[in-house]
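Why do we bother with holo predictions? Because pocket geometry can differ from the apo form. Keep that in mind while you read this record for zinc ion.
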Amino acid sequence: MPLYESQNIKIYNSLSGEKELFQPISSGHVGMYVCGPTVYSNVHLGNVRTFMSFDMIYRYFRHLGFKVRYVRNITDAGHLENDADEGEDKISKKARLEQLEPMEVVQRYTVDFHKVLDTLNFLPPSIEPTATGHLIEQIEIIKMIIDNGFAYVVNGSVYFDVHKYNETHDYGVLSKRKLEDLINNSRELQGQGDKKNPQDFALWKKADSKHIMKWPSPWGEGFPGWHIECTAMSTKYLGENFDIHGGGIDLKFPHHESEIAQNVAARGIAPVNYWIHTNMLHLNGQRMAKSTGNTVNPDELLSGKNKFFTKAYAPSVIRFFNAQSSYRSILDLTDDGLLASEKGFNRLMEAINILDSLNSGNSSTFDVSEWRQKCYDAMNDDFNSPILIAHLFEATKLVNQIKDNKASLNSDDLELLKKTMNDFTFDVLGLVNVAKEDSSADKLAGAVEILIELRNQARQNKDFALSDKIRDDLAEVGIQLKDSREGTTFTTK
Ligand code: AMP
Ligand code: ZN
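The structure, written out:
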């Protein structure tokens, strides 16, 4: 029986503002879409926090035995400078400033994004679609919205008619904003351009002669609006109604609000059953944001080369730090916080490494099954990783007591404790056991020493064919032997 059948997950749904029992559309399957990065600059740790929270959620669903289709897109066009309908395309602008092809910009920062996530031990999503790879799908949905009377064409652009939509539907269902308030607070009269109303948003924009990223459409040469991209990519791979849509809380309005409106206008269906929004990472008490320059990039934290922190931190410490607060709370990145996480992480790893060498006793002084269920309960409660970590620390204490003969577990319980600790620490939280990595380096060194010894014997026996073979074959797998008067040493590439 898959684990999910015995666990009830509750998710805080931003749509209802309540924790709701998670009931997937298709039993045993989860469809999840997360808005990916706009690839015009290196990702900062704020972006990473959001994606890391979803990586943990993805890992937990998989751990429970769900078949998850996790779609995280790459925004490679259509995201304009002010996150609305005016200004330059973020990617075109970078290309212009650096005298590159826009696709060179896209390639450079997509590669950086993947490298960062790889270093931080992320699982790759099931599908990573690009906006420019789905223009036909976007154009099709725009046509449907026009046909249903919720969009209008002006001068080669297409706009979503928010006022018309709001007569029969609720533009504000997710963000809880009222159209009247949006109208009263609107300061954008100058930027209105061709729009009937400033609240309308672009589905397709005509490209002026300077705009380099443009494609043909039924309305002339142009480019898609940012919101329609996610509607096209999410519904193409997950269906017109799917389980989970996520992103940073800053995307709730207008991006996600507009995604709902677009799908309802095109197909008469709300696209998403559970909306998950992650809270922001702060630095020095202020939101980490590219626009204000208040950022630290992952490589700067990993190398220690930055002006904010006293030392370098390991990838798993960054993951542990993130998991020590709920994805729904603001998290302030500080040296003290990271130092404390480093200590906590090391304590957990020590316990896990001791665990392997513990002996079982005749009876148990601790209820491992009950403790294990508490770990699941924590994650079932809207992925409450800080509570999970508190339970893992409780087990850490127990491990040390067993080591000191102050507690004992029978062999079944000891096995269950080991399995549960490993499952949650490595599979769910995605931490990497540094000590284990070191010990595999030790093992490699030990194995090479044996080969060096055999090579020395071959030389003594004047079997130079064998001694050369050992040296050459090692070189082929990237291990160089170096002979000197003191003996033979080796280096790895
Ligand atoms: P962008 O590349 O600007 O579209 O952002 C990619 C993702 O990072 C979005 O889901 C944002 O909500 C998220 N994000 C941006 N800044 C932060 C931050 N300071 N903390 C957490 N998430 C963030
Ligand atoms: Zn999106």
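Residues 35, 230, 255 surround zinc ion (ligand 2) (CB under 6 Å).
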